[in-house]
Specification:
Blueprint (H helix, E strand, L loop, with lengths): L1 E7 L8 H16 L1 E8 L5 H10 L3 E5 L7 H10 L7 H4 L4 H12 L5 E5 L15 E6 H12 L16 H18 L2 E5 L6
Length: about 200
């Protein structure tokens, strides 16, 4: 099976639970499937990362987006620039024209049997009309947080780690509307149970 896996940010170093989980899944898939991992990132160009990830996952395609993500001021200005967007900043900040173009091309050509959108943050890069079956992959923790932001349930502010962005209650309407729209566009959803988060 030909699988396309799309995830924003650098996968290495393996310094978070989410990175470890994705890395281990990708390594296992690559032993029995034809895997293409699309890794895109902003900030400073990291050629060492681009070379290292190929050693771990030979089917990797990296895209350096040059998205501003180095200083708090850059993040704040990027946040202000994206205020008019309908999607929440936690999603729109991971949108990149280069990634959108490549996905539109690859998916319309049906180069893959299935595409995996790793977390909601990648969703805006996928075309509205999906010619390739596409799955939204997320952890139950992420699912619960998005649902809580839509119901007004207090959240201990996970969005604060964005360093620049609105408080959680300002994300309510945009987050839930965006999540519902993304679910409708996907062929399915895979959530990792809370118990397996460790």
């Amino acid at each position: 099976m030909k699988i396309l896996w799309v995830k924003p940010g650098k996968l290495l170093p393996l310094d978070t639970g989410g990175k470890l989980r994705t890395y281990n899944i990708l390594r296992q898939l690559s032993t029995t499937q034809e895997l293409t991992y699309l890794s895109y990132y902003g900030g400073h160009r990291d050629e060492a990362y681009e070379q290292e990830i190929l050693k771990h996952l030979p089917g990797t395609v990296t895209i350096y987006t040059a998205a501003p993500d180095v200083t708090p001021l850059e993040r704040y200005l990027d946040y202000v620039r994206r205020l008019p967007w309908r999607a929440p900043y936690a999603v729109s900040k991971f949108t990149a024209p280069e990634v959108q173009r490549l996905l539109r091309e690859w998916l319309s050509q049906r180069r893959f049997d299935v595409a995996v959108c790793d977390f909601l943050s990648s969703a805006l890069n996928f075309p509205r009309q999906l010619a390739t079956p596409t799955v939204l992959f997320q952890h139950n923790v992420e699912t619960v947080l998005w649902k809580r932001t839509g119901t007004g349930t207090p959240v201990s502010s996970p969005d604060r780690c964005l360093r620049a962005g609105p408080p959680v209650h300002e994300l309510d309407v945009r987050s839930i509307a965006h999540q519902r729209g993304s679910y409708r566009r996907r062929s399915g959803e895979i959530s990792i149970p809370h118990q397996s988060a460790a």
